[in-house]
Design goal:
heterotrimer, A: 584 residues, alpha+beta, C: alpha+beta, Alpha-Beta Plaits, two-stranded antiparallel ribbon, globular, disordered N terminus, binds iron/sulfur cluster
């Protein structure tokens, strides 16, 4: 059994840390990671709480594969109620924190309350210390990590930058400089608790029965199912590979989603990124190494990922890789989510060009572009408005039809007018517009399925959402396209009970429904499952998607079918029967 | 006739790790999937094929001079 | 020391680490601890691969047993022996003096509660390494 069976609960208000047994029944129904952290939050948070108050909780959750040699098992789930959306929020972060936490003896950490003054936590096996962060507060995440390493040596750290301290709804948590729990303002939850960082070091290990046999079987799986054509794009290119795919299919967000192609895409595509590559880098236990450590001119970053190239590149009409790398590095240091940051800057550019409000920045202006992360993170000048996200900006100044967000979360880098299933995926994602709950563009815009029909899209999206929900709970990285059969085979090597692929899909469905139930309890309804008007009304004007919209009737159709197949009523409320069926 | 083929990402290995291949063909017309078969690229490893910049059907007939990009399957984003 | 090698009359192969290929996945550490300690615990591996950032940027570094045999020479009771280019450890002889751990120039001997762990050239690490950053090559002296 690869759970440690122990949860560490830390109350920052009192400074007390206590160990408690992991709820085994819940672990069986929700596995770990995304699912189990949502379950804890659903049970422990009062409905309607302010996400930035002491009532919110921050959960770090590992899974049954964490710390073992299972390929791509190096992710940690971090969850809380989202300050950006008010929905449930779970993020996935790579690096080496999750395994280290498990080696320290914990499946999860639940952080409550608020420290009187800035602190950071040090978890060193049984020893849990709350240390003063007086000298760290006000510093970027990068210097914070370096200073903690100076003080504690060989530890792995989750940290926030100024954006988290200043409670931005787009503040992320970072680890090992360039890994992020990016979306929904998870970093602001840390900031609201006066928690600057969490460092961990573990000396223990994970025992598995027949470990040599299990390792040999897993090595075979790694060779024959992980390091294959389907997944090795991560090593050969990483996510920048998608720039060319999106450009040629007309779904590369450009100029705040006014167009689906970018004239200067060749300056920001994978070939361009590769020309700056210094090293490939992996998370713990990952053979795929999607990360590109790059240097260009005076700047360097581990990245930029596709999302950054799209949202901070083409979407801001910035065709200069060095500028994007620097913007990326700044965002990582201040701890700004690059998807939201790119969207916000692009929205400000469009509002300025349309004379709606002058933010002093226009499309393609590199110098101004590079000033934005600092202004936003510190809420200075125009940054004070941008810091609040596109929805709040639109409420204040207008332009709501092209404030590109769902439930208050900015839209990732796949244009829904050229990939209708992505529209449905954004609309029904549990934390607002997100591409990681389902990424049907892979088989639709980039595959054989017709992008411009509502037919069959609901089923496609639901299948992916459920599979991903269980995948992020087990936990496996998104970039290994493994089947639920394979997942079951692996889990059966680690657990002291048997699971089948069908049961895993059921667990995924349960998790997705519980997330929905959380949001339902917070007052979310059908109207929150809609996309910005631009997607429904404005025709794209270039490339493969020229003349395309996602007609509202088609979206209505997809959504209605989605609710029906999910077993929800026509308003998107989970039926009692479904609740019973899933033991919710 | 002559065509130029770009095999992207992990598919490069099917072209002896070259970034691009220039292929001379005896026939006047040939379907793109015949070339894919000759190179022994499994269809399941391909997301989509572009011919002269446009997403194209695998049955498309080539007339010569085309620039073809073969994209691998990609998961996650 | 050279005498020992000559006597073995064997083409000596030892682990070699290629930093430029390493992605820092630590699968080698896990493979080593699983094979030799029957647990997944990277700190019990008989090699040390690091890939992390300091203020200057990414640092990739690796230490592996290169069969220098300092430990064999240092052990006062002969608990570490080399045979046919392979180390083995005789736990019943070990007095836990720790001399080998201190003397290993690569610092790859694992100190355990009882006894120590040396690289036994099982090749598990290299078999797992996804990028061929670990290879077995002839040791040149
Ligand atoms: S364990 Fe260390 S001292 Fe012993 S042979 Fe290997 S490198 Fe030399
Ligand atoms: S060869 Fe075996 S004992 Fe030596 S470092 Fe590799 S896995 Fe460990
Ligand atoms: S397995 Fe190979 S790539 Fe991974 S850390 Fe070890 S040496 Fe580096």
């Amino acid at each position: 059994m690869t759970y440690t069976g122990t949860v560490l609960r830390i109350d920052l208000t009192t400074g007390k840390a206590t160990k408690e047994p992991l709820n085994k029944d819940w672990a069986r129904e929700y596995l770990g990671g995304k699912g189990l952290s949502i379950k804890y939050l659903y049970e422990e948070l009062e409905p309607g709480i302010d996400p930035l108050s002491t009532d919110n909780k921050l959960i770090l959750m590992t899974g049954p594969t964490t710390g073992t040699i299972v390929p791509n098992s190096g992710k940690l789930a971090i969850a809380a109620k989202s300050p950006a959306t008010g929905t449930i929020l779970d993020c996935s972060i790579g690096g080496h924190f999750a395994n280290e936490l498990k080696y320290a003896g914990y499946d999860a950490v639940i952080i409550e309350g608020k420290a009187k003054s800035p602190v950071y936590l040090f978890i060193d096996d049984d020893l849990v210390e709350m240390r003063s962060a007086a000298d760290l507060w006000g510093k970027g995440a990068h210097e914070t990590e370096h200073l903690i390493a100076d003080a504690l040596g060989d530890v792995i750290t989750l940290a926030i930058g100024q954006a988290g301290e200043n409670l931005l709804p787009m503040a992320c948590i970072s680890s090992e400089l360039y890994r992020q729990a990016g979306r929904g303002g998870i970093g602001a939850v840390m900031g609201s608790k006066n928690l600057k960082a969490i460092s961990v070091w573990g000396s223990g290990g994970i025992e598995v029965a027949n470990i040599r046999k299990v390792s040999a079987a897993l090595n075979k799986i790694k060779r024959e199912d992980t390091m294959t054509d389907d997944n090795m794009w991560a090593y050969s290119d990483g996510t920048p590979m998608i720039v060319d795919l999106s450009q040629s299919t007309g779904i590369l967000p450009t100029r705040n989603f006014q167009e689906g192609t970018f004239d200067e895409y060749e300056k920001i595509n994978s070939a361009a990124v590769k020309s700056t590559l210094k090293a490939k880098k992996a998370c713990f236990a990952c053979p795929l190494a999607c990360s590109n450590y790059v240097k260009k001119g005076k700047t360097e970053v581990e990245g930029p990922e596709y999302e950054t190239l799209a949202l901070c590149g083409s979407n801001c009409a910035i065709g200069d890789l060095e500028a994007i790398i620097e913007f990326n590095r700044l965002c990582d240091d201040y701890c700004l989510d690059t998807i939201s940051a790119g969207n916000v800057v692009a929205f400000a550019m469009e509002l300025t060009e349309k004379d709606v409000h002058d933010f002093g920045i226009r499309f393609g202006e590199i110098d101004n572009f590079l000033k934005m992360p600092g202004l936003m993170a510190n809420r200075e000048g125009v940054g004070a408005d941008l810091a609040e996200g596109v929805r709040a900006m639109a409420e204040k100044y207008g332009g709501g039809d092209y404030a590109m967000q769902v439930k208050g979360l900015e839209i990732p880098g796949y244009e829904p007018r050229g990939s209708w299933s992505m529209g449905l995926a954004y609309g029904t994602a549990d934390r607002g517009a997100c591409h990681m709950r389902a990424w049907p563009a892979a088989v639709e815009a980039f595959g054989d399925i017709d992008p411009y029909t509502s037919e069959g899209k609901a089923e496609l999206v639901i299948g992916m959402q459920d599979d991903n929900a269980v995948k992020f709970s087990a936990i496996f990285c998104d970039f290994w396209a493994l089947s639920t059969e394979r997942m079951a085979e692996i889990l059966n090597m680690l657990l002291d009970y048997e699971v089948t692929a069908a049961e895993l899909t059921r667990i995924g469905e349960r998790i997705y429904n519980l997330a929905r139930l959380f949001n339902e309890r917070e007052g979310f309804t059908k109207k929150d499952d809609y996309l910005p008007e631009r997607i429904f009304k404005e025709k794209l004007t270039t490339g493969a998607t020229e003349g395309k919209v996602l007609p509202r009737e088609d979206y209505d159709k997809m959504l209605a079918e989605y609710y029906r197949l999910r077993g929800w009523d026509e308003n998107g409320m989970i039926s009692d029967q479904k609740k019973k069926e899933l033991n919710l | 006739m002559q065509i130029t083929l770009y095999l992207k990402g992990p598919l490069k290995k099917y072209g002896d790790n070259n970034d691009s291949l220039t292929i001379e063909l005896e026939q006047d017309q040939v379907a793109i999937n015949e070339i894919i078969e000759q190179l022994e690229i499994p269809a399941s490893s391909i997301s989509f094929i572009q011919i002269n910049g446009e997403k194209s059907d695998s049955g498309t007939i080539l007339m010569g001079g085309e620039i073809i990009v073969v994209n691998p399957r990609v998961a996650g984003g | 020391m050279n005498n020992i090698l000559e006597r073995s009359g064997f083409c000596l192969k030892a682990l070699v680490f290629h930093a430029e290929k390493c992605i820092g996945c630590k699968l080698c550490h896990l493979a080593c601890s699983a094979q030799n300690e029957e647990i997944f615990n990277p700190r019990l591996a008989r090699l040390v691969i690091t890939s992390c950032y300091d203020r200057e940027g990414l640092i990739v570094d690796g230490q592996v047993c290169d069969l220098c045999l300092s430990c064999v020479e240092a052990c006062p009771v002969g608990a570490i022996v080399e045979k046919n280019g392979r180390l083995s450890f005789l736990e019943e002889l070990c007095t836990d003096c720790g001399l080998c751990v201190d003397i290993c120039p690569n610092q790859v001997i694992v100190k355990k509660d009882k006894g120590i762990g040396v690289c036994v050239q099982c090749k598990s690490c290299a078999n797992w390494c996804p990028t061929e950053a670990l290879t077995f090559e002839e040791v040149k002296r």
